[in-house]
Amino acid sequence: MQFPVYIHLFSVQLPLHAVTETLGMFIGFRYFLYLRKQRGDQVNQPNRLWAIIGAIFGALFGSRLLGALENPPGLLQTGNILLYIYQSKTIVGGLLGGLIGVELVKKIIGERQSTGDLFVYPLILAMIIGRIGCFSMGIYEETYGIPTSQPWGMKLGDGISRHPVSLYEIIFLLVLWMLLVMINKRYTLVSGATFKLFMIGYLLFRLLLDFIKPGYRYAFGLGSIQLACLAGLLYYLPSIVFPSRLIQKQYA
What we know:
Elements lengths: L5 E4 L2 E4 H24 L5 H24 L3 H6 L3 H7 L3 H19 L10 H17 L17 E2 L5 E2 L2 H22 L6 H17 L14 H12 L1 H5 L11
Antiparallel strand pairs: 1-2, 3-4
Helix pairs in contact: 1-6, 2-4, 2-5, 6-7, 7-8, 8-9
């Protein structure tokens, strides 16, 4: 397998990653609409639309900003800082930025219902499709692992056996999806709990995964994404310490 992987559409040659990014967002949103129709929505139509707008703009800003902070020397040396920020992106920044965007919008419009649960499975699906594209880029995008002597190590374009971290993430997301489905079948969760569990699981996974990814390190050997994951986990600390709060109480 040669990296990066390209596909041919008529006379146009496109990186597979560009296709999977677009496809992931499209399929994920269609899945969201399907779930909303099947399960109903506690949030009324106008407020749901505002929440989506807040999520989109928050995700765009958070993804770019945190992505740019992954490599401070590159950020400081660039000739066009706005272009550098725009071209940088990371899913962790997108998730946290989207969370902040939605919460700000909810404060403004006075929405008290949780808006995150319906997004969870569509998000996981979109992320899986997107990570297939990340894997197809090999070492030509910053989603590869450090060298390894493990038998599952893969040569991603530079002849060095590396951790295929994109594949690790795909496997983790599939397992997380199944666990969330099982938890929802076993327990009646409070509104918003599924989204909280998703965020806690993914942030913890990325905190650990980035130890086997190359990149700039700040304090305590942690990169910008890991520091953002820690901040997110602190935000969800009450749910981590008291998980029973996520389960709806049954009254006789």
